[in-house]
Amino acid sequence: MKKQLVFLFVLTTGFLIGAGAQTSGAAELTVDDAVKLALDNNLSLKRGALDAEGKKRASARSWNMLIPTIRASAQESHPTRFYTELPPGQNNWTTSLSVSSSLTLSVSALETIKKARSDYEAGLLTLEQAKTDVELQTRKLFYQILLYQANVNLAQRNLESAQARYDQSAARAKVGQASRLDELTARVDLEKQRPTVRNTQMLYENALDTFKTLIGLPRGTEITLRGDLGSDESIAGAGAFLERDTAGNGSLETAALQKTIENLEIQRKEAWYQAYLPNLTLQWNPSFQYGNNAWSEGGSSSFSISVSLNLDNFFPWSASKTKLESLDDSVRSSQMRLAETLRSREDRISQYRRTIEKTMESIAAAKLNVELAQSTYAMYEEAYRNGTADYQSLRNAADSSLQVENQLQQEQYNLISTILDLEKELNVPFGTLGGQK
């Protein structure tokens, strides 16, 4: 019977997804395998990487505004008159070529180059945030599926127990040892278990579909998740983790806000230079003509240097002034948002730490409850072997063991989920605790 007890508890561990998933071609995944698939196949990450690549290209080529613009034109002309003939020797075609080159220099161009670089760095931060979010979702969903599978096993065991109780009540009622009311009550208990089984199965299947989409696998792929919801090593790791001083690590969210402020300040400098500093323009326009079997320089060749400044920008109601004021407001707003985010982050870190401490205490209590349930089952097993307890009492004790085991698994999942949230907040690698890699 000891072997039977071990078998009953193995059913609730969530280590196996089902016999059907063990067929040929099924994918067996650890949490790290799932994370790798998600980072490689997730479509939203691919879009983010494409956007970051475009910003990288724009940054690498932003210096091209310092290259002169060059234009070339060619013309073939022939003199003509409407009422008289052309004098002899002037009835020739003339070929002319002209090239124009200009370069406008301004201090704002340097800020434009800086802005392109800042946009690229912000794009990298956005992509890194997206990767972190996808990894967090993948890890949490991985362990949630293990919990859902344990819930399915528990619901199925409860249904089997309800069926056994009904069968026993019906048999007893048939020989007059139980009332019709007892039989009807057992039947109601049995039917109430069926929707529970279906609901837990639906939650499990829905989570699997979401998980496959997240990691980029076809919906028809059969997968087995290889992992567990907790161990003594992970609990010890959580305790050690709480003692670490990691609050100094900046989060990706605050880094992105700091980059936003930097970008806005660059935009403000760029707008100020454009509005209040002059532009220097260099222009060269050589011209050549071909006639009488010879090339000659045209009379329209020129080289010019000009300085321009828009005086309208100095009026307080000008569009440039309004733009600068709007950028100032945006900088101040982002600075306040950063300060607010930093305060909120400190609150979340404290809340996560308190939740982890509370959950660890709940796990310790749940383990004692599991130990009690196991001892109770052992007593009923001994009594059943000696003929002093019936099989249904033994099944009830087994069901109780499964129930408290499931409660322990729920607390273990809560611990894993909260630790993952804290790891993201502290910007440390996921899965750094014992047993969660």
Classified by CATH, the class is Mainly Alpha
**Considering the protein shown, what is the CATH homologous superfamily?**
Outer membrane efflux proteins (OEP)
Approximately what portion of the residues adopt beta-strand conformation? 5-15%
Poorly predicted runs of 5 or more residues: 1-25
* H/E series: HEHHEEHHEHHEEEEHH
Structural class: alpha+beta
Overall form? elongated
Report the CATH topology name: Outer membrane efflux proteins (OEP)
The CATH architecture term is: Up-down Bundle
Q: Radius of gyration from the CA trace?
A: 38 Å
What's the number of helices?
9
The helix fraction, in percent, is 55-70%
How many distinct domains?
Answer: 1
Q: How many distinct beta strands?
A: 8
Report on this structure.
- There is one protein chain.
- Helices cover 64% and strands 11% of the residues.
- By secondary structure, it is α+β, with helices and mostly antiparallel strands.
- The protein has one domain: Up-down Bundle (Outer membrane efflux proteins (OEP)).
- The strands form 2 sheets. Strands 2, 3, 5, 6, 7 and 8 form a 6-stranded antiparallel beta sheet that branches. It has a two-stranded parallel sheet with strand order 1-4.
